[in-house]
């Protein structure tokens, strides 16, 4: 079974996806980390071929070509580079292929921008996680304008634009505790099992 959790930056996707995966006994797939890994390599080699990178997950740790980059990829700068690199159709194709291969191996909670629309449009549960721009900027500790620029870039890219799947359930996390959000999503999963 796959739970697809999509939404804009700062909506709480990673935190919620980890907690939902734990509650369900599923594996968590952080697709954003994959784009951040490509962005990290592209910063030193602009012609990097995403398909040749070895991106693996070891629990909460992210390994890029055998190197633990878990902390390095979590900086705001890495997030901005990832957003820009994600507009490259070749990068998206390589990572979507890798993501599909991973989620085919078991029960997953996968989070990103296009899981329910592109990576796995047949996911059993699709959630569009959102929050107000002010709340998301506060969580990311960045200016609202920077966040809205990223939203625009993610939503307007030609390949795999960020948008909710037609059959996604919207969950607005503004002002909600993580436990409340997790319970709602776990309830959605229970309804289809």
Automatic annotation (TrEMBL):
Its main location: cytoplasm. Residues 3-188 form the Cytidylate kinase domain. One of its GO terms (molecular function) is kinase activity. It catalyses: CMP + ATP = CDP + ADP; dCMP + ATP = dCDP + ADP. Its EC number is 2.7.4.25. ATP binds at residues 7-15. Keywords: ATP-binding, Cytoplasm, Kinase, Nucleotide-binding, Transferase. Transmembrane segments: none annotated. Residues 140-167 are annotated as: Disordered. InterPro entries: Cytidylate_kin, Cytidylate_kinase_dom, P-loop_NTPase. It is found in: Cytoplasm. This is Cytidylate kinase.
